[in-house]
Amino acid sequence: MRSDPLVGSLEASGQALLQMQGLTVHFPVRSGMSGRKQVVQAVDDVWLDVRAGETVGLVGESGSGKTTLGYSVLGHYRPTAGRVIFDGEDVTGLEGKRLQRLRRNMQMVFQDPYGSLNPRMRVEEIVAEPLVCHGVATDRGDVRRRVEELLAMCGMPAEAADRFPHAFSGGQRQRIGIARALALGPRFLVADEPTSALDVSVQAQVVNLLQDLQRDLALAYLFISHDLSVVRHISDRIAIMYLGQVVEVAASDSIFDNPRHPYTEALLSAIPVPDPRSGWHEQRIRLRGDLPSPINPPPGCRFNTRCPIAEDICSERVPVFEQKADGHWAACHLSTSAVTSNHTPVEFGPARGRNRSSESPPPDNPTT
Ligand SMILES: Nc1ncnc2c1ncn2[C@@H]1O[C@H](COP(=O)(O)OP(=O)(O)OP(=O)(O)O)[C@@H](O)[C@H]1O
Ligand code: SF4
Ligand SMILES: [Mg+2]
Asked: Of 25, 109, 136, 255, whose CA is between 20 and 30 Å from 183?
C-alpha cells in the first residue's frame, strides 16, 4: 500500500484522513417471479477524500447511493471493488478485531433519532454501550462519569442518563445519538441525514452542535443530506452523487456559484426562493422522469436520459471525471474543458476511466 505513489503523497502531505479509491458496492439481487439474478450498482467507482477536520457534504436524490457509500466506508458493507484508506491504512473489508478497532475512529450518526435508540435502555446504557463493548471503561463510576461528560458535550444534563429515550424530544434524542457516536473518541463521523427527521426549528441547533463539536474535537464529517441549504451551511466541500457515482466535487461556494455539471444545476435550481416574484418557478430546471434503475444504468453518462443538454456523445462515451477549475471536479462531456495548468490531467480507465494506466504519471488526487 505504501508503495502506491498516490497514497504515499497524501500521507506525506497529511491532507486526507479518509480516501475512497474507486469504491464500488454492488448488491446481487433476484428479481420478479423468475428469480433472475441481477446486480444493483448502488455505488460505482467513487473517488472522494475527506481531510482531517473537514466537512464534505454528500448530496443526491433518493436512491443515488449516499447511505450505501457511508456504510461501506464504515465497513458495514464489503466493497465489490476499490479501496478505503483511513489515516494511510488500507481498511477495505476489515473483519473481527481489526474492524472493531477501526470503529473507534469512525462512527455514524443516524437519520432517525426515534428508531436508532433502543426504547428499553436507559440513556446511560445507550451512551455507554460502545465503551463497554470495546472494553474502554468497565468500572461503573468511570462509565457514569464518561457518559455525563459526553452528554454535557452534547448539551444534555447529567440527569438525562437515568431516563429512557421516550422522555426526550427528537432534537434531544439526536443529541443522545451524537453523544453515543462520540463515546470512543472518533476522528470521523458519517452523519446520514441527521436533521431531516427533526422540526425545522431544531435542525439548526443540531447543525450548530455538530459544528461546535467539530471545532472542539477536530472531527471530520461526511454529511449526507437532501437539503442543499443545510449542506452549504455546514460543508467545506460538496460532492454531488447521481445513480451511484460522484459527478461533481468542489468547495461549497464553487458548487453554488459556478456548478459544472447539469445535474448539480438542476438540484440548485430546485432550491425554493422566498420571494414569489423572483420568477423562480419559471427558471427551475425540471428533470425528465425518475432516477433510472441502478440495476441497468444508462450507457455512457448515466445522466444522459434526463439531461436537458445531452448530445449523442453522452450515451456513447463515459465522461471523464476531470478538474474543470482549481479543485473543482466534474464528469461531463459538455462542461467547460479541464484545466491543465499546475495539474496533471487525469486519464481514467474504462469503467469510469479512473484507473490510471501504468505509464501515466500519478495524478493529483481527483477529489482532494
Ligand atoms: N442491501 C441492499 N440490497 C439491494 N439493494 C440495495 C441495498 N441497499 C441499498 N440498495 C439499493 O441501492 C440503491 C442506493 O440506495 P441508498 O439507500 O444508498 O440510497 P440513498 O441515496 O441513501 O437514498 P435515500 O436518500 O432515499 O436515503 C437503491 O437503489 C437501493 O434500493
Ligand atoms: S455528459 Fe452529457 S448527459 Fe452527461 S451531464 Fe454532461 S451533457 Fe449531460
Ligand atoms: Mg439514505
From this structure: 25
